[in-house]
Design a protein that fits this description.
Low-confidence stretches: none
Bound molecules: fe (ii) ion
Radius of gyration: 20 Å
Oligomer: single chain
Mean pLDDT: 94
Distance between the termini: 28 Å
Largest sheet: 2 strands, antiparallel
Structural class: mainly alpha
Order of helices and strands: EEHHHHHHHH
């Protein structure tokens, strides 16, 4: 029986297996074609998700989207490369779904597209940001010290000092999200490392 589905674009063919072990090369050529189109939409999905942070202040002086724009703008104006700026833009995108571990969510999203150091910065910026406020909450501001001696310790400390902890200024003129869109599209068009990159 031919298996098809009605989609916005008309009738779309589907793979015929009920268990993966029944799959054929024909099935996977079809799924692979779908994946390539889906992957091309990644920048749109990421940018759309980032806008969920708009108007979400959480008591901070500026909303979470504005903070992301300001962090990215500061990094860009300081001469950082495109993948660094994209990491800076997305570093808090995990706040919505990873409320208790947002750096890891952002780090996973940028991981295929950025350097190992940029990924490490993104993944660990939460502990390093704590240096600037954990003591106000009865926590240990030096929790980042567990990473002292790591090859990327200074790079992460620098990201937080120059671009993240400093990006809460309501008077700072940040670039708009549209300014960063082409960068996100360029960076996400080229996965440097992925289990699926060879396909
Ligand atoms: Fe953060
Ligand atoms: Fe941040």
């Amino acid at each position: 029986m031919e298996v098809k589905e009605q989609t916005r674009h008309g009738m779309a063919e589907r793979a015929k297996f009920r268990e993966m072990k029944e799959g054929t090369a024909e099935d996977w050529a079809l799924i692979g074609g779908n994946f390539r189109e889906f992957a091309r939409g990644l920048p749109d999905r990421v940018l759309k998700h980032l806008t969920l942070l708009e108007g979400d202040f959480g008591g901070f002086p500026i909303c979470r989207l504005e903070h992301c724009l300001q962090t990215a703008t500061r990094a860009h104006r300081d001469g950082r490369g495109e993948s660094y700026v994209v990491m800076a833009l997305l570093h808090d995108i995990g706040d919505t779904l990873g409320t208790f571990n947002h750096p890891e969510v952002a780090a996973s999203i940028v991981k295929p597209f950025v350097t190992e150091e940029e990924h490490w910065i993104c993944q660990n910026h939460g502990a390093f940001q704590g240096y600037y406020y954990f003591h106000h909450l009865g926590m240990d501001k030096d929790v980042r010290e567990q990473f002292r001696g790591h090859p990327h310790f200074e790079a992460c400390a620098e990201f937080c000092e120059k671009y993240d902890q400093s990006a809460f200024d309501p008077d700072y003129e940040s670039e708009r999200l549209e300014f960063f869109e082409p960068m996100v599209r360029r960076i996400m068009a080229k996965p440097l490392k992925s289990l699926y990159a060879d396909a």
